[in-house]
Amino acid sequence: MTDYKYPLHPYHKITDLKDMLEQSHQKHPDNVAFLSKPVKGEPYFPVNYKKYYADVEAVGTMLLELGFGPDSRLAIVAETRYEWYVSYLAGMNGETIMVPIDKELQKDELLSLFNRSYCDGIIYSPQLADRVESVADQVPTLKHLILMNDPSFATGKTEQDDETIHDLPEEIVSEDGTAVPLTAWNDLLREGRRMLSQGDQRFREVQIDPEAVRVLLFTSGTTDKSKCVMHSHKTICANIMEMGQLLFIGLNNDDIVLSVLPLNHTYECTCGFLYQIYKGDTIAQVEGLRYITDNMKESKVTTILAVPLLLESVHRQVWKNIRRQGKEKLVRRMMSLSRGLKKIGIDIRRKVFSSIHDAFGGNMKTFISGGAAMDPQILQDFYDWGFVAVQGYGLTEFAPILALNREKYFRHDSAGLPLPGNEIKIINPDEDGIGEILGHGANMMLGYYEAPDLTAEAIIDGWYHTGDMGYLTDEGFLIITGRKKNTIITKNGKNIYPEELEAVLNRNPEIAESVVSAEPRISGDHLIVVEIFPDKEAVEERLGKGADEEQILNLMQELVKKLNSQIPTYQGIRDVRIRDTEFPKNTSRKILRDYSKKEAI
User: Fold this and answer.
1) Could you tell me the residue ranges of all domains in the chain?
2) Which fold has domain 307-484?
3) Residue 155 main-chain phi, psi, to 5 deg
């Protein structure tokens, strides 16, 4: 039984996402649900829960009218925008199965996922039009293309309702004469409103089966090898109700969350979108990564859900500004002082570090990291500056959160505590207690789509085998050490977890990324090697411009030597190699390892 240290936060029960939206609409119809950005550079346009609820009903009614009934599949390929939020719940709360797809995929990759999901319809934005329409004729199941053609109409300019606001062909015709009807998204909205005003009750009367497959989520990997995870209203709602019991910020429905991650990612969709609707909070749309600081100030954001790369970038910029002012020693002294005062109940952080808070708009409270392991020191710095800064652990297979730190009970080096209703256990632990992490809970996936063998391999006796390695502390915190398939086993049976060594190396500003691996030796043991991708800007600051390859190699060897002095001898890295290819910090470990293997062949 997990000890959560202090009482769990209250929550309200929802049976499905339709029930969730109806409850939020009834409780706070005038709360702002979205701060949308129909036009970059223009002020935010607020959309309240009353309007959002009505728009979901209108589009949902028209999807039924177009024939999106049980077992139909509707893909969404678009950047974050108001129409995405409406379309997702219009489909989920109707009868169709939703298929969110990554907007960064190229034509062949999109085609593969359209066909693997047997999609009947595709909702897409103008930015994706060329890619989507060029492969439409190669999707045999496709019956409808729906183009998001005018964002300003979708955000409330209803005086245009009776005007023709688009100039689109009625269908997309391929070279062989195949035709797929093309509909403007705004026409769905307009016609749906008209049908509702005339008494159409079909969408309102749809009964949700909470246990049926209602969303297909493609995991990372090549499109032919990526797994397709099946989730239901029940699994998603379980995750929504569970996570808020551990980390519940903004008890008065006054949080403003800046949406910075792609909505096709389960982390952003469940935590940054659906959970905020559940709470009655506001979701502000970011205009782009370069505009994050401006958007934080304009929207008066209180919370950001991010990946380590983003938080690391923000953290680096804060320190750069501090050093530029010549205040690093002073700031570090004040951080140490405020940390000590905090232990005796005196919290001066927001006052002492007010300039940092002002840089984020003055309202920021919470940074939540997910998607990959986060350097604990970065979280500690954010905490010392007066923010709640925690990380969690999740997988698409758990919709996605499995573990999460609490705002007042946390470990920066851990992925957190199991969510209420979830269980985590470690199997086949080594002498240090490290073994494979298994999870179980009501938010666990229904299985992999059209892959019963993969499902049976992953879920055994009701427990999902994550493939991640780690251990549980005596207090129940989950510590992740790396991936099972990456673990190096020495001749003496010792386990080495490359990700742990890489995390320490990557703290050096001169190292953009690193990949630790093992090469077999004639003796039967392994040679531990590291391939380092230097950060050219930081190397220049350290060595000066024009540093040659030998100087850079010597610097990297010094950094590795420093690491070796801090770890057991058997973990020591014996060979250092330099890569010229540039990768940004926190590049996917899979990408780096695949690259290294490819280059070594």
Assistant:
1) 17-295, 307-484, 487-600
2) Rossmann fold (3.40.50)
3) -110, 25
